[in-house]
Amino acid sequence: MFEREDHFIGGRWVSARGSEFLDVVSPSTEEVVGRVPVATTDEVDAAVAAARAAFDDGPWPRLSVAERAEHLRRFVAAVEARREPALRLQIDEMGMTHKFAVENFDGLRPSLERYVADAEKIAFAEVREGVVGKVLVLREPVGVVAGVTPWNSPIAVEVSKIFPALLMGCPIVVKPAPESPLSAYLLGEAAIEAGLPEGVLSIVNGGVPVGAHLVDHPGIDHVTFTGSTGGGHVIAQTCAARFRGVTLELGGKSAAVVLPGTDMTEYVPSLVGGSLRNSGQICVSTNRVIVHEDDRDRVVQQLVDHISAMKLGDPHEPDTDFGPLAAKRQLEKVEQFVASGRAQGAKVVLGGVRPADRPTGWYFEPTVFVDVDNGMEIAQEEIFGPVLSVITYSDEDEAIAIANDSKYGLGGAVFATDAEEGIRVATRIVTGTVQVNGGPPAGGGGPFAGRKHSGMGAERAVEGLGAFLELKSVTLPPGYEPAAV
Ligand code: NAD
After folding, report:
1. Known active-site residue 249
2. Atom 38, ligand 1: which residue's CA is nearest?
3. DSSP-derived 3-state class of residue 183
4. Does the Cβ of 215 fall within 6 Å of ligand 1?
5. Which among 23, 65, 214, 325 has the fewest CB atoms less than 10 Å away?
């Protein structure tokens, strides 16, 4: 049992003053595995005030990118030193498999190094020709950032806010999801061990009211949010009312298009991983599999064979592929969607039920639907569970039309005999990222920018770092020759 009675505010542990606590229930055992305090509005205010002071008067925004990168490397090293508790706490709090936890954890350092390499490409000060005379164009840190995150990959998503904000000189207050607040305590410990300056990182726990207070706080300059489209909609309105910048990474209903005649033997693991990893609780899940009508039976058989050979079970065991869903309400939602699919005429060829041998825990068998029409609820709504729908097409235009017939546009995949053909088709899909023949998901370190109801703005890469910068043009006096910048 993980129990804390403090918050990480402004770089130190502060005793909680409120009386409300979050009880964290393990999705695999249904037992309480942790208890941490909910931040009061005063505690959120204290976190923002510490960040404000660090931005307005502290050294952080005035350090070079290289100096901030060194701080963050020490921070990552301190997180990595907590590998065992980081894996265990995330498995305990949201039921992710050990495999998925390792995959994410091992990605932390490469992710930071990608951000650092991209940051080095940014011109923080450049002289340009204006209409008349020269202009000094500056890119300055935007200010204090609020980062609000979901539960589906706690540490990885939290650092996807912390790395770029801090690297660009912006102190950040993070609010993890109430389902997964435990592992975030390790980030506080790591920040202290790494010697991050006072005020640059705070972590406040709680649900929507805590998040709402944070994003509406007058001391915040930019909000970066990952979560549901509904949550993003409310946050976007709050930010609009305050003329505050906001980056939104939201839900998805992505398509994997299999071009006619593609031999999927090599690609089935990528297709299954891309759609069902983390029991389908990934925003870029490509769970609409769009196959040519002549290939349907072959591809469905390959999918069913591959998924049937995977292991559903205790997420703590290193060889488990499918753990439980993160919350009971998530399981119930998946059951409702499966019932809706059946009622609308789709046919289950694998799964479709809770596993009979797992009465405890919020497990659901990986499920494959065929005879799915793209207009059905299971093809239009984000299920966020282990449910894959196979939809057929007769020609390429129809395949593209089906892929694009969605209110979302986050991920995507194309499988093709010829990679060039795959890339050509990828350009026709209205979405933020596309994998071709098993390329990495979610943009692979390139810009990650959801379209339509999947988001606003970009994360990652130079473009994502740009969200934490403001532009300033300094017009230079006539005849003035600036020194090299
Ligand atoms: P959620 O929107 O319910 O909550 C996400 C976070 O936002 C939580 O910390 C929550 O407390 C907070 N929150 C929700 N409404 C808020 C509001 N009005 N004001 C302030 N804070 C608020 O999402 P969830 O159920 O935790 O996560 C699942 C969703 O996240 C799915 O839709 C999934 O697709 C999406 N997601 C997207 C990405 C991406 O990068 N695009 C990545 C992971 C998850």
Report:
1. yes
2. 283
3. coil
4. yes
5. 23
